[in-house]
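name: query_chain
kind: protein
chains: 1
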Amino acid sequence: MSEGENKPARKIGRLDAAAILLLSLGEADAAQILKHMGPKEVQRVGARMAQLDNVSQEDVEQVTDEILEAVGGQTGIGVGADEYIRNLLTQALGEDKAAGLIDRILMGGNTTGLDTLKWMEPRAVADLIRYEHPQIQAIVISYLDPDQASEVLSNFDDKVKLDIVMRVSSLETVQPQALQELNNILEKQFSSGSTSQTTKLGGVKRAAEIMNFMDPQLMESIKEVDADLGTQIEDLMFVFDNLKDVDDRGIQTLLREVGSDVLILALKGADEELQEKIFRNMSKRAAELLRDDLEAKGPVRVSEVETAQKEILTIARRLADAGEIVLGGSGEEML
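structure:
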C-alpha cells in the first residue's frame, strides 16, 4: 500500500495513548503519574508500554495534539491546576481509570487496608484470607476487581469456591462498623493509615462479574445448590460472544474505545458471525485493513486471545454502566 501525503492518522486506543504519553515524558514526570495510579492501571499501562516497540513521531504528536485539544489549549500556568489535571488525565486514561486517580491526586487520598489487597498477588491474598470466616472471605472477594477475585478463588478448592460465590451473591450491604474494623485490621498489617466508607458490596451482579472469569463448571455447581440463583447469575453474565446481541450503535461506541492490536487478538478467537458484525460497523477501508491484519496475524496463544477479549469486555461493561451502550446478553431490557 502506497503512503500518500494525506494518509489519515491511525486510530490510537486509550490504553495505547496513555502508554505513549508516559513513554514520551521524562522518567521523573512519568513516575509521578504512575505512583498515583491503582494496581490494575499500573499493570495494564506498564504492560502496554513494554509491548510498544515502534512508536512513531506521528503517534506521539497525535496523542499530544488530542490532549492539548481536549484541554482547550490551556496549560498549568494561569488556570486552575485541578481542572487542568482533570482534563489531562481524563483524556489520557479515560474517565473510568482517571476518576480514582484524580481523587487520589486532588484529595490527597491514601491507599486503604482493603485497597492494598488489590496490589497483592492473588495467591498472597488467598493465603491471607484462607483461615478467615467465610463471610469475611466473601467481603474481601467482593471488594476486589472481578478478574483478580477469580484468580484469588482459583487458589481454593471447589467446595470453598462455591461457598464464597454463593455468599457473594447474597451479600448486599455491610455494616460500616464491620467494614471499618476489617479495614483497620488490614491497615495495621500493611502499615497504612486511611479509612474506608464503602458499605455496599457483593450481590448477584457482582457474583456474575466474578463468574465471567471463572471455570464454567462452577456455574453448574451453583445451579445444583440453588437453581434460581444460578439462573439469576447466568442472566447477568456477559461473555465475548454476547457482543452479537449489542446493537450497531453500541458496537460503534465500543470500537472507538478499543485499540486495533487488542481487537485483532480478540477476533482471532471469535466466530465468523461476530467478526462480520464488527466489520459491518467499521468504515469499508478500516474493515479491509482489519481483515488483512487478521489474516496476516497467524496463530496466537489462547491466553493472549482470552486476555484481549477480557479487556474488551471490561470496556463494554464500563460503557454499559455509564449508560452509553446496552449489553444485550446482560439480562437488561430496553424500554
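note: The two ends are 47 Å apart (CA to CA).
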